[in-house]
Specification:
Oligomer: single chain
Order of helices and strands: EHEHEHEHEH
Radius of gyration: 14 Å
Largest sheet: 5 strands, parallel
CATH class: Alpha Beta
CATH topology: Rossmann fold
Structural class: alpha/beta
Strand order of the largest sheet: 2-1-3-4-5
CATH superfamily: Response regulator
Number of strands: 5
């Protein structure tokens, strides 16, 4: 069953960046959840409905890729997008192998992150009730 609005988990150790992304998605009708690192993100996923996650690559405790791998290991199948200022071919290949939906290079533009999120949600869900959000 699809929720009335899609929820996005934003995981980054930079609080200002998390808040900026919340400010991008909440006015568009998304429910946002935030975590400061991968371990906190895993705790949130265990108790909340998450439809998509954005992960910074470099965080304390668990990197973005490590967090994605753990989510897949526990059979969470929502799309995950990795964000990194240091995205090189090796990291992109690692992310692909971890089944990340996409890798975005920081600094990411508002339009690019919105486009990636909408594409991932459209690809993963038949969410006719989200038409207003996924426009």
């Amino acid at each position: 069953m699809v929720a009335d609005v899609p929820s996005i988990l934003i995981t980054d150790d930079d609080r200002d960046f998390r808040e900026t992304l919340c400010g991008v998605f909440e006015p568009r009708g998304f429910r946002t959840l935030t975590a400061g690192d991968g371990s906190e993100a895993l705790e949130i996923v265990r108790r909340e409905t998450v439809h998509l996650a954005l992960f910074d690559m470099h965080m304390p405790r668990l990197s973005g890729i490590e967090t994605i791998r753990q989510l897949k290991q526990f059979h969470f199948v929502f799309p995950c997008i990795l964000l990194s200022a240091e995205a090189d071919e090796r990291m992109i290949e690692e992310a692909r192998q971890a089944q990340a939906y996409d890798v975005l290079r920081k600094p990411v533009t508002r339009d690019n992150v919105i486009a990636a999120v909408l594409s991932a949600l459209r690809s993963a869900y038949d969410a006719s009730s989200w038409k207003a959000v996924l426009r």
